[in-house]
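Note to self: keep these together.
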Amino acid sequence: MAVSTASIIIRLSEAPALTLATYRLGLSALVMLPYFLYAEGYKKWDRRDVKLFLLTSLFLAFHFIFWISSLRYTSILNSTILVTLNPSL
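Structure:
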């Protein structure tokens, strides 16, 4: 339910896109942290894994910033279609 209503709530919000993206990713990280620490998967990480994790986190942050920004310029439907487009292989 939170995923399907996120764009509507974001559209109604007056906060900047960067702030909304930070809160969204920060809260999800806090929710996932206990599982991550319990599973102890991080103990198997080497330096390459940490670099890849940080790189993918950066791309995810840009994804949310651009998507939330796009909600200011177009409709929710258009924004959702544009952000979910991906090439089929």
